[in-house]
């Protein structure tokens, strides 16, 4: 029954935002794909008799029971948006597993002693406006609403304009929502692992210990636009050379500081084959086990390039609630406990003081943020079982 249930939900999601050439997904905030996913979630939740609501940040909630009368509740869920050309599992696996866990709890005859909520956070990847976990940051107040409204995408569209076009939330009222947050007594997010930790431990499901500190910086490199055929090398101010230095410095400093650094996104102006660029913007993503090493890495890169990077986001180390983590590992008969370098909405909620935990489902190659991201169906089903066991325990 679970297999058929899983396949039905999975195949309904499969075509939304899928690029037919790469097989990857483009599911960005406040686009038509986003709206289709929101509709799918609301309809699946409603068909299960759950009460679907929207918070002031535009995140979707589906409640079994009344969190205002009997809460705070136990909340699970994840996100449905993707990075550019992302995989099918990052986010959706958690949402699909949450819906199936509700089915499984009912099939087991569980009568929850407190309300159970499923949340579908918006704009987790930050693929369009550059701020990861925008939905959970907004609702908890970690992202200022004025700043959010003014963020722009690559076409110069502001988040406020995108929200208006989508018509889901009124950007004028977007922001922190203490009432929605107060309904969360405990949060558990199931997610595909984005590494090979569970492969190494020979386990289908694991429990997260911590999320590494991580941040994003924008580096503005100025130059002078000119003709590629007539401008002597000596006369050029070519910001692409600074970009090259930036990329190499990021790699070198990451190795030196035992951390990770990535330049995965650049904006070249005017982006013409036969023109020296007038400017280049690049984004540096840096993470590591120790915050001090990450900060030192970014400072060293900045010194080498001679430009002060603009910090767009910073998330300190998240250590998940130790008691909750141990409780989950116990329910799951000693499932392995492991850290991750990937950020999640769970990290934002944990930072807001909510007891939070995560479950990871084995990723056989470790590849994520790529069309090649994968999890075996049998492991996904083991994830649903694990989430069901955990929720049943927490709902007592
Ligand atoms: Zn994710």
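^ Assign residues to that structure.
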């Amino acid at each position: 029954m679970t297999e058929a249930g899983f396949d039905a939900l999975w195949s309904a999601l499969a075509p939304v935002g899928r690029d037919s050439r790469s097989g990857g997904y483009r599911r960005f905030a406040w686009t038509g794909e986003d709206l289709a996913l929101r509709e799918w979630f609301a309809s699946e939740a409603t068909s299960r008799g759950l009460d679907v609501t929207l918070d002031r940040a535009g995140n979707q909630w589906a409640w079994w029971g009344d969190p205002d009368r009997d809460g705070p509740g136990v909340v699970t869920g994840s996100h449905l948006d993707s990075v550019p050309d992302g995989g099918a599992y990052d986010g959706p696996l958690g949402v699909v597993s949450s819906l199936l866990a509700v089915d499984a709890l009912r099939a087991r005859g569980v009568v929850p002693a407190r309300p159970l909520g499923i949340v579908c956070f918006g704009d987790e990847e930050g693929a369009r406006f550059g701020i990861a976990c925008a939905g959970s940051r907004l609702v908890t107040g970690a992202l200022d609403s004025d700043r959010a409204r003014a963020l722009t995408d690559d076409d110069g569209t502001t988040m406020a304009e995108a929200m208006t076009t989508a018509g889901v939330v009124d950007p004028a009222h977007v922001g922190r929502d203490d009432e929605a947050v107060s309904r969360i007594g405990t949060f558990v997010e199931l997610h595909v692992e984005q590494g090979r930790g569970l492969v190494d431990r020979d386990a289908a499901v694991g429990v997260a210990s911590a999320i590494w500190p991580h941040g994003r910086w924008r580096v503005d490199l100025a130059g002078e636009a000119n003709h590629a055929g007539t401008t002597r090398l000596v006369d050029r101010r070519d910001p692409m050379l600074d970009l090259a230095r930036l990329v190499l410095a990021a790699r070198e400093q990451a190795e030196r500081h035992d951390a990770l650094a990535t330049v995965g996104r650049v904006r070249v102006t005017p982006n013409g084959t036969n023109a020296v660029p007038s400017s280049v913007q690049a984004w540096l993503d840096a993470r590591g086990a120790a915050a001090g090493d990450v900060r030192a890495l970014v400072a060293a890169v900045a010194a080498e390039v001679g430009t002060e990077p603009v910090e767009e986001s910073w998330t300190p180390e998240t250590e998940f609630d130790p008691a909750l983590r141990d409780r989950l590992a116990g329910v799951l008969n000693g499932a392995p406990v492991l850290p991750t370098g990937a950020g999640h909405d769970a990290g934002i909620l944990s930072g807001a003081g909510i007891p939070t935990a995560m479950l990871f489902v084995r990723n056989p190659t470790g590849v994520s943020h790529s069309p090649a991201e994968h999890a075996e169906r049998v492991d996904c089903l083991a994830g649903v079982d694990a989430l069901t066991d955990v929720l049943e325990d927490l709902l007592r």
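The mean pLDDT is 96.
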